[in-house]
Amino acid sequence: MAGGKTFFNENDKASGLFSKGDRMYLLLEGEVGLMAKGQFVGLVRPGDIFGEMALLAKAPRAASAMAKVACKALSLGEKEFSAALGKTPEFALMMMGVMVQRLRQNIARKGGMSTPDTAAERPAVFNKKELAELAREIEPLSSSAGKVIMNAGATGIFMYIVQEGRVAISINDKVIERIGAGGVFGEMAMVDNSSRSASAVAEADSTLLMIKRDDFLALIKSKPEFGASILRTIAERIRSMA
């Protein structure tokens, strides 16, 4: 693409398989500038991905992307994206790393994770049928009410999916979120092996699926839609914070 040309425009909407509103890009050569509400918000360099938020969240573009110089990029629609996940599961882990970094940056800009007066329940990522299928791949773990699942400050090795029950997420002993059946937590620290930013306690007798990196990659290889669902929920959290 020649310098000065746009990959997509702010507020573009998905309207078909080949529309600008439902494709993501991996920049191979050149530089791409990102603009939102008339202001420069970021620079994309070779090796970076961009445009994935709209594809994953199926939402209008939050920014415009313009080639600053002549560029070469790999373009992926939903079908190509799903095929890439199944063929190269590490691609999903790389994308998660990029998106988790963005989420952490948004949290830092807002002065840390908020502690609302009323703890909301995080939306479910997986339905009952999907949970049953995952339970055939990952042995479920029972956690009685009151049991600590993870502590803030500990190194993250696993991410968790709630199959049954309810888990409370807290910061400084204040519950900020609740995770019900089908919900996911702990994925941020699993991706970059960082310290947990919050603690998690079973609020009711619960059944959890503990997933480490190797499990994560194996699941994506056999079920690309699993990886897409995890990426989608992170994209939605980033958009909600923005």
Q: What does this molecule look like?
A:
There is one protein chain. The chain is globular and about 60 Å long. The mean pLDDT is 88. A hairpin with a 2-residue loop joins strand 12 (167-171) and strand 13. It has a five-stranded mixed beta sheet, with no helix packed on it. Strands 1-6-3-4 form a four-stranded antiparallel beta sheet, with no helix packed on it. A four-stranded antiparallel beta sheet has the order 9-16-11-14. It is an alpha+beta fold and 242 residues long. The chain contains seven helices and 16 strands.
Unreliably modeled segments? none
Number of helical segments? Answer: 7
Mean pLDDT: 88
CA distance, first residue to last residue = 29 Å
Largest sheet: 5 strands, mixed
> Strands across the major sheet, in which order?
8-13-12-15-10
User: What class, by secondary structure content?
Assistant: alpha+beta
Give the number of DSSP strands: 16
Basic shape: globular
SSE pattern, N- to C-terminal:
EEEEEHEEHHEHEEEEEEHEEHH
What is the percent of helical residues?
Answer: 25-40%
Q: What is the rounded Rg?
A: 19 Å
Q: How big a fraction of the residues is strand?
A: 25-35%
